[in-house]
Amino acid sequence: LQLICTNQQCEKNWDMTFEEATGRTTVDKNGNIIVCTWSRENEHEVGLYNISPEGEILDSDKFELETKGSIVDVFETVDSNYLIVRSKKVVGNTMDQEYSYQKISPQGDVIWSFSNTRFSGGYMGNIIQTLDDNGNESFLSVGTVGVIGDMKVRIFKLNQNGEMEWENLYTESGVEIGKSILETDDGNFLVMGERQGPEEGDTERSVVLLKIDKEGNLIWRKKFAWASMPGMKFVPWENGGYLVVGRYVNSPGRMTSTFKDFWDTFYMTIVSAEGEVINRFHGGETKITVNSVLSIDEENCILMGFGDRTTKGNPDIPNNMRFVSYHK
Could you tell me which of 22, 25, 16, 15 has the C-alpha nearest to residue 1? Predict the structure, then answer.
């Protein structure tokens, strides 16, 4: 596992290598970097590292937890503990994943634990933390449930004690996959998903936006055609709107082309707070397979991904990490 810290121009400040296989990072209230790690040699063990912005390890520890599996997400809770999400395949089922949600103290004590096996096909989006009117924390998780050919967006809410308060499924028909959720300025939530085509006016995929209230009731549902590959992430943008970012296969033959005549770039769609498309464009000659987008402010973002996809299969050309900065 390697951690790389850059400035806003994506120039490397420092890097750090860990002995563990994989992990996730977050930033705490003090601006320090929290790294949560996992190792295949001991699937129950979790490592927690507290690192300063300058790259100094301030504290570190390892804990044995009852759950096991790779780290999917980690973040600091409002009461200065940590929520860790882990996943593992369900034995005897090639589709379903078991996800465990554990709130632990900085000392590794388990405060509460919640497990769930209803996410299917490895499709889990993100989980976010929110506060109710009394200042109590709760958590909303988005993902997908179902079988091939009939999948639905699934959202559930955990309260401050790790108990499920509600669970809802959302779809019109066919296959819809839940990928990401954000809290809106009016205290509701916006969910981004995707659905497979073809439908009238669609390309290979469509992006689906669902706005729900605090109880999971659907306020509105919007859909717009994507381009070539599914939408990946979305972040807040100017005037209360959102920037949806994904992959675009830049080739006349699209997915039927060979590696020699196509490359991955990014595709962006700006939507309003009401989910209406304002503008859309792709990266042209910029070669990047996008897997994440970071919002710097309402006018700037950074895309992170991998390098030129035309090098796939060639062991002599590394598939390097790549960053693209974008200004509106």
Answer: 22
